[in-house]
Amino acid sequence: METVVLFIENQRERQVTQIICESYGFNVLALPLETASFAQLLQYRPESIIMEITDKAEFQISFLRQIYAESRTSKIRILCFGDLKDNILIRKITEIGRISYYERPLNTDKIKQVARPKTTKGADLRKDTIEGYIGEQEDTAKIMDPSTSRTDRISIMANKIGELLAFPFTVAKVLAVTQSSTTGAGDLAKAIEIDPVIVSAILKTANSALYGRGGQKISSIKDAIVRIGFTETKSIAVSLSVMLLFSDEENCIGFNREAFWYHSLAVGVIAGKLAKQAGFPHHEIAFVGGLLHDFGVILLDEFYPNYFNTTLRSATQHGTSFLEEQQNRWKMTHNDVVCKLFEKWNMPFELLAPLQYWLKDFNWKHETDRNITILVHSIRVAEIMAHSLVIGKECDEFIESIPAHVAEELKLNRSNEENFFKLVNDEINLFTVYLQMSPIQIAPKKGGATANNKKTISYVDFASLRFDPLEYYLLNQGYQLLYNNSTDEIKAEYESPKCILLRINTECNPAKVTPFTHFISRNNAISELDTEEFVPVLITGPESMRSHFTSLPSHCGFLCDTFDLRILTFSIQRLMLGEPLLLTHSAHENVPARSSSPKPEAIQKPGISTRIFDNNKVLISLQGNISKTSLPELKDLIGKILKKTDVIIFDLSESICDSALIQSLEEFKKAVWTKKIILILCTLGITDATCGEVAHFQSEKELQSHINSLIDLRNSSPQIHNAN
């Protein structure tokens, strides 16, 4: 079922629009228009958005730009509506992407352009699964009741699932074979041959072009195991057994089962390789543990959609991980439920351990068994890697910094990194063949140059990381990384990067960062301004380093490196659009927020002040004696303001300007008009100011009318110079 997101403040219009969309068979999410909603869009992946344009138009335009700058949301159909009369604002909106704008009222025909009705609805598979379950409504009410104790909630959920679901007997038999050092292909064949679906899949795989030799067909499961490989066959059997437990039909919006299996498979493959690399004796167990590390999530979707929907929505709103949100809200997690089930199903302790210790930090160690520590760390690091490689999707994209001692324990190595992920890529694609899933492709670290410079980032690693999830995440989101170590190396590039990403640790001297925060861009300069534009900088590091970067310039920002990766691309795009990041004080509040003041950045000095005029234009007031020596300062101010608007008004009512300054501003006004920038020199109201031949307006309403005529003239005759 497709999803439509509503950003509508007017309550009546929101309710009517929701009713219309739901009548077409769509899931509907009504969200507030705030920066945290961007992570929700990435989670719920709506097909359409309907947005009311309000007096916050400039922020809404910035938000829409970020939607279309992000590859995962760039294909969303968007309908905007409102009472806008400013043609420039309407043009800004419709030129961003696949956006239509209509004046009120919003009718059914307009809604159909984005929320396209469905002819059929999918079957409710969950209804068949739970049909006949006694007391479901009562149990659901208890689970959702905040006063229910942690123990009771876990028991209710585990008992219901245990009654309705039997864990595959094949998995238990395969795990028993895995744990024994004396078993071989014959023992594995006996464990598998009781399940005809698994047997059929393995025989089909063994006789495929991938494994077939000289056209020789085999019909024995034992021969198939020999041909495919002992370890590979065990992985196939477990993967198929678990996946066949559930249908492809998810029950909760924002959750996709196919994407979930991709993610789980990736975690399993990576965990198995990390565990083997670290010397864990049964790395097949690490594969199974990785595959099942979030088994509880699909159980929630299958049996507890209300609990799942409520928690997922709350987690994306608060910027917390799905596990942390459950712990905060319900005092338990889906892992607690799975542990209880695994105990009932007599699953080995090695599969319970990662679930039991997941909320511990990386400093946790098992009291007596180093192998359990390696197993838990392998699966946790594997999930971080799967997120950074953008393989599949679950309930969040939270990552944490991997400490040096864990990197050492798992033998993470930069020099072998690309080969490691190539093997991961190939192994996952072997699974996709027999699971009938599309193949994946992990982006290489050093790909060819992109056709344009829109997503080029200078990557500077002052933290000497053995593995950086941020690096691979950006690569797999289509960014091109330039690996630089100094500002001189950045200057040597053909073009300036669109952003600089600085990775730091607790040992990094903040003074080392300063030269990068004042790096001047050579791209897209307006020669008439003679101003300096700095390259945006995003600094990421431990929370303890935040206090060193509380006075950053507006084109720079700091993010704690334990956060939801979706905030990374959001933050970079925000800085690229000239929007500031507000510094926050806790890790889960890293979501960049819009400045509380809508005023553009300006250098406030005696004699010069700025204010917003008519929502989206800027009026600069000059006071006192102003000479031509102030021209560089005024041009610098204009350069900053042009990041926000293309209409600037100079109010000279309270100033005495010499003729040389007026003449220079007149010449500058003509030059920028050719670039579709409107600059007005005027006085307002009753004034004794004598500022040369400048326009005079009795009221702001009269000035607004003049601006509208200039906007119309600019749109129809952009080559006219002496217009204003």
Count of individual beta strands? 17
Structural domain tally: 4
Task: Please count the helical segments.
Answer: 29
The CATH class name of the largest domain reads Mainly Alpha
How helical, in percent, are the residues? 40-55%
Quick overview:
With 724 residues, the chain is α/β, with parallel strands linked by helices. It contains 29 helices and 17 strands. α19 runs antiparallel to α20.
If you had to describe this structure to a student in words, what would you say it looks like?
By secondary structure, the protein is α/β, with parallel strands linked by helices. It has four domains: 3-112, Response regulator (Rossmann fold); 245-434, Hypothetical protein af1432 (Orthogonal Bundle), CATH 1.10.3210; 456-589, 3-Layer(aba) Sandwich (Rossmann fold); 608-716, STAS domain (Transcription Regulator spoIIAA, 2-Layer Sandwich). It contains 29 helices and 17 strands. The strands form four sheets. It has a five-stranded parallel beta sheet with strand order 2-1-3-4-5, sandwiched between helices. A five-stranded parallel beta sheet has the order 8-7-9-10-11, covered by helices on one side. Strands 13-14-15-16-17 form a five-stranded mixed beta sheet, sandwiched between helices. A hairpin with a 3-residue loop joins strand 13 and strand 14. The longest helix has 22 residues, at 257-278. It is elongated and about 100 Å long. Residues 119-132 and 583-606 have low confidence and may be disordered.
List the helices and strands and how they pair.
Elements: E1 3-7, H1 11-23, E2 27-30, H2 37-44, E3 48-53, H3 57-69, E4 77-82, H4 87-94, E5 99-103, H5 108-112, H6 125-130, H7 136-144, H8 150-164, H9 169-179, H10 185-192, H11 196-206, H12 221-228, H13 230-243, H14 257-278, H15 283-291, H16 295-303, H17 305-318, H18 322-330, H19 334-344, H20 349-356, H21 370-388, E6 398-399, H22 404-409, H23 417-434, E7 456-461, H24 469-476, E8 480-483, H25 487-491, E9 499-503, E10 537-541, E11 556-560, E12 563-564, H26 566-576, E13 608-613, E14 617-626, H27 631-641, E15 647-657, H28 659-673, E16 678-684, E17 695-697, H29 700-716
Parallel strand pairs: 1-2, 1-3, 3-4, 4-5, 7-8, 7-9, 9-10, 10-11, 14-15, 15-16, 16-17
Antiparallel strand pairs: 6-12, 13-14
Helix pairs in contact: 8-19, 9-10, 9-13, 10-12, 11-12, 13-15, 14-15, 14-21, 14-23, 15-20, 15-21, 16-17, 16-19, 17-18, 19-20, 20-21, 21-24
